[in-house]
Design goal:
465 residues, 3-stranded mixed beta sheet, binds beta-D-fucopyranose, globular, alpha/beta
């Protein structure tokens, strides 16, 4: 038997987001998810939108007790821009939202759970999308910064870990390249502008945060990172992987962590006529806004090969430079669209952050093992759902993280996606990731066996295999 011991003050917990958990009660405004669901409910699995979801707005006290039961010492969720801000132009806040978030934060803190608060989890206010095109517009960049400053001022040091964006590349991919987020456009030039504007919004918010001198708080960003693995060692495949890495990872990592804009990226954009509008003042923000920590989300590896079939889209996407590739020897999760399972990617990510990004302090901000409700099965006679599959896979991933720590990774915690099965965008409740099942009929939270294991891990800081 081997014992894997993690650092003493390691953060253990889970991640979620406001819109995926809170429900619509007393929400000041709509986000694009409310709007899109109203316009096109058929785009959502079984037509379910984010109206009620886990109903955290009403149930946060009871839920914080459930967090304790599975051993969390920390938890990430997000503030909803469309809940906190009543009037985007004047910056008037919604007092009910202030009260709700304060109560929720206090409840976590008094129960020994460190809250980490994210400011944007794919949830553009509907009004700002309609009026200005969301992050297509620099006006919205500034409105985001006003909102961020309000949040810093109101909740300040109560939140020790502030996060500007979760997976900032995803709204670019979903909304402007591949049609899985509103506004469902397919436009490479707009995509690059939106990506740039989000990086700018992040940089400006980080600058404002530092001006406030909240001495006890830190600020960071959460990126979804996966190395690009090739079919084999042939040169054209390695080149394909280099492009995929540049466009999907370095495009956000370099400006946000190293404060550098990769020259090669600018060249690619120029070649395709998709160079964004920038000013030298904006570039100064981006190249000087220092973050304190990084969050990394990891689910599945990216595999690529050189293009074999000619690129036939009439707009720019990263796939101009590669094709996605399924590893015939890979291991796949039978419960999640056959996604590949590759725990060693965690080690590769950690070493990349260590060697190429100044070994910035980071945490595994999302790692999720998806199962559907049927494969998790019904609760046993003890009332607990047996999801040993999840625990076994989690162990494999954590062994790789442990190896990375031994190799000098500066990782300070692990958050699993997610706490209670929550609503996940167009997939709605199709995939379950939680420590607790959400019974959609009754709203009941049903414990899963994995939580018992996690509690042991969190308390002892170790596990045996
Ligand atoms: C991540 C998102 C999160 C959730 C999981 C399943 O990419 O950050 O909101 O939907 O996927």
């Amino acid at each position: 038997m081997t014992k894997y011991v993690f650092p003493k003050d390691f953060k253990w917990g889970a991640a979620a987001s406001g819109i995926q958990t809170e429900g619509r009660t007393n929400k000041a405004n709509d986000s694009i998810w409310d709007l899109w669901h109203r316009e096109s409910p058929e785009r959502f699995f079984r037509g379910i939108g984010s109206d009620k979801v886990t109903d955290t707005y009403h149930r946060y006290e009871e839920d914080v007790q459930l967090m304790k039961k599975v051993g969390f010492n920390s938890f990430r969720t997000s503030i909803q821009w469309s809940r906190l801000i009543k009037d985007y132009e004047t910056g008037e806040v919604c007092q009910d939202a202030v009260q709700f978030y304060n109560n929720y934060l206090d409840e976590m803190i008094t129960n020994g759970i460190e809250p980490m608060m994210n400011l944007y989890h794919f949830d553009m206010p509907a009004e700002l999308q309609k009026k200005y095109g969301g992050f297509e517009s620099k006006k919205v960049v500034d409105l985001y910064v006003d909102y961020a400053v309000k949040a810093f001022q109101i909740f300040g040091n109560k939140v020790k870990y502030w996060i500007t964006f979760n997976e900032p590349i995803v709204p670019v991919e979903g909304g402007y390249l591949y049609d899985f987020h509103y506004p469902c456009k397919k436009d490479g030039k707009l995509a690059v502008q939106v990506g740039y504007n989000i990086i700018l919004a992040h940089a400006k918010a980080v600058k404002e945060f530092h001006k406030l001198e909240l001495k006890e708080s830190k600020i960071g960003v959460v990126l979804n990172l996966t190395p690009s693995y090739t079919r084999d060692e042939r040169e054209e495949d390695k080149k394909a992987a280099w492009y995929a890495d540049l466009l999907f990872n370095r495009s956000f990592l370099d400006p946000m962590v190293k404060n550098e804009i990769p020259q090669e990226l600018c060249e690619i954009f120029a070649e395709h006529g998709v160079t964004p509008e920038t000013t030298s003042e904006e570039i100064d923000y981006i190249t000087s806004a220092k973050i304190d920590f990084l969050g990394v989300n990891y689910y599945v590896p990216r595999r690529v090969k050189a293009r074999e079939v000619a690129y036939d889209l009439d707009y720019f996407t990263p796939e101009y430079y590669f094709e996605n590739y399924i590893n015939p020897e890979g291991r796949f999760n039978p419960y999640r669209d056959n996604n590949e399972i590759l725990p060693t990617a965690i080690h590769d990510i950690a070493i990349n952050v260590k060697d190429n990004y100044g070994n910035i302090p980071w945490f595994l901000a999302e790692i999720g093992i998806a199962m559907d409700e049927e494969s998790e099965g019904k609760p046993g006679s003890d009332g607990i759902i047996d999801d040993t599959f999840r625990t076994d896979l989690m162990k494999e991933h954590l062994i790789q993280l442990h190896r990375a720590l031994e190799d000098g990774a500066n990782c300070f915690g692990v958050h699993q996606w997610t706490f209670i099965d929550n609503w996940s965008w167009t997939n709605s409740f199709k995939r379950r990731y939680g420590f607790y099942r959400l019974d959609l009929e009754t709203g009941n939270r049903i414990p899963k066996k994995h939580g018992l294991w996690f509690k042991e891990l969190s308390i002892s800081g170790s596990f045996n295999v």
